[in-house]
Design brief:
Length: 319
C-alpha cells in the first residue's frame, strides 16, 4: 500500500490548511473499533462503521475493509451471485485484483488503485470474484466496499457503472508535502474527484507520513468520518488516539484534523485513512440484506421482484 502515489508529493496541487480564526474545528464524538468477520465465500472483512449509530452515517449505509490478506495459491475467494437494489456500491481496490460482473452485462476488472462505482438503482444481480491467475498464484488482496444510500427519488433509477482507474484519481497533498490525498469523489478545497454521485459526498484515501498532520476544510452540511486502514495516529484538535480498524465520528464544524504517530510498525510505514463525508438524505431507511429502501413494503416488493426474476438472470455462461 498504496497502489497510486508519487515519489515527491510536493509536485502535487496543495490543499490549504483552513484559517483557524475563520473556521470551527470538528471535535471527535466517537472512536469505534470495527468487528472482524467473513463475507461471501470466506474473505476476511472488518465492518468499519458497525459501532456507529446509523443516524450519524447518513447518507452512508456501511463500509467493509476487505483484507489485508496474503493468500496462498488456491485460497483467493469472492462472492456468489447476489442481488442489489436502492443504493450504490463503491469498491476501491488498494492491492490485488478483482472482477465484477452483473446480469445487465456490466462490470469490469479492478487492479490496485482502481474504483468501481455501481449504482444498483432499480436492481440487478451481481458477482465479485478474483481472476483465475490470482487464484492460481495467490497474493496480496486489500480493498474496501462502501454502500452509499440513494434518495427515494433515485432508488428506481436505471443501474449504472463508473470504472475509475487509478490514474484518473485526483492526487493532492498537504502544504508541507507530508500526505498524499487521493480524491476519489466529490470536492475538496476547490479540487474535484472523478466519481459522479447521486448524493453529494466526498471520499478521500490519505497516506500520512510519520509525524505529519493534516487539517482539511470540510463542508459544514456534511457529516465527517475517518477510518484507519493501517497505522497509528490521532484525530481532532484534542489528539484522540486511534489506529488500524478504528472508525472516527466527528461532530459539527468546518475542518477535520488527522495526525500520524511519529513511530509506525515496519509493515505499515505510514498512516492510511479513508476520509468520508456526505450530505444527509434524512429519509426513512428500510435495510435488509442486499436491499436498501424507504419502507418495509418496498423491501417486500424488492424480494418479490428478485424471486420473480425481475432483477435479472444469471448469464447463461455463469449458470
Amino acid at each position: 500500500m498504496p497502489a497510486v502515489t508519487v515519489e515527491n508529493p510536493l509536485v502535487l496541487p496543495k490543499v490549504d490548511t483552513p484559517d483557524p480564526t475563520a473556521t470551527r474545528a470538528r471535535r471527535v464524538r466517537q472512536v469505534a473499533t470495527a468487528p472482524q468477520g467473513y463475507e461471501g465465500e470466506g474473505f476476511p472483512v472488518r465492518r468499519a462503521f458497525a459501532g456507529i449509530h446509523t443516524r450519524h452515517l447518513d447518507p452512508f449505509i456501511m463500509m467493509d475493509q476487505m483484507g489485508e490478506v496474503e493468500y496462498a495459491p488456491g485460497e483467493p475467494k469472492g462472492t456468489p451471485w447476489h442481488p442489489h437494489r436502492g443504493f450504490e456500491t463503491v469498491t476501491y481496490l488498494i492491492d490485488g485484483k478483482f472482477v465484477h460482473k452483473d446480469s445487465t452485462g456490466g462490470g469490469g476488472f479492478l487492479g490496485g488503485g482502481d474504483t468501481q462505482w455501481m449504482t444498483a438503482g432499480s436492481g440487478l444481480l451481481h458477482i465479485e470474484t478474483p481472476p483465475e491467475d490470482l487464484v492460481v498464484s495467490g497474493g496480496l488482496f486489500h480493498g474496501l466496499q462502501l454502500w452509499v444510500n440513494l434518495p427515494g427519488s433515485d432508488k428506481m433509477t436505471a443501474p449504472r457503472y463508473q470504472d475509475i482507474s487509478g490514474e484518473k484519481v485526483k492526487l493532492l497533498t498537504s502544504p508541507d508535502g507530508g500526505a498524499v490525498l487521493r480524491l476519489i469523489a466529490g470536492e475538496l478545497d476547490g479540487h474535484q474527484g472523478p466519481g459522479i454521485t447521486h448524493t453529494p459526498i466526498t471520499m478521500v484515501h490519505a497516506t500520512i507520513s510519520p509525524g505529519a498532520r493534516i487539517t482539511l476544510p470540510w463542508r459544514s452540511d456534511f457529516n465527517a468520518l475517518v477510518y484507519a486502514l493501517n497505522g497509528d495516529g490521532t484525530v481532532g484538535e484534542e489528539n484522540r488516539p486511534f489506529g488500524l480498524g478504528q472508525a472516527v465520528l466527528f461532530g459539527d464544524g468546518d475542518s477535520i484534523t488527522v495526525q500520524a504517530a511519529e513511530r509506525q510498525e515496519s509493515r505499515s510505514p505510514n498512516l492510511d485513512v479513508i476520509i468520508l463525508g456526505g450530505r444527509p438524505i434524512r429519509e426513512p431507511v428500510a435495510w435488509y440484506g442486499p436491499f436498501v429502501m424507504n419502507s418495509h413494503r418496498e423491501l417486500e416488493q424488492a424480494f418479490e421482484d428478485f424471486r420473480a426474476g425481475r432483477l435479472g438472470q444469471i448469464p447463461a455462461e455463469h449458470s
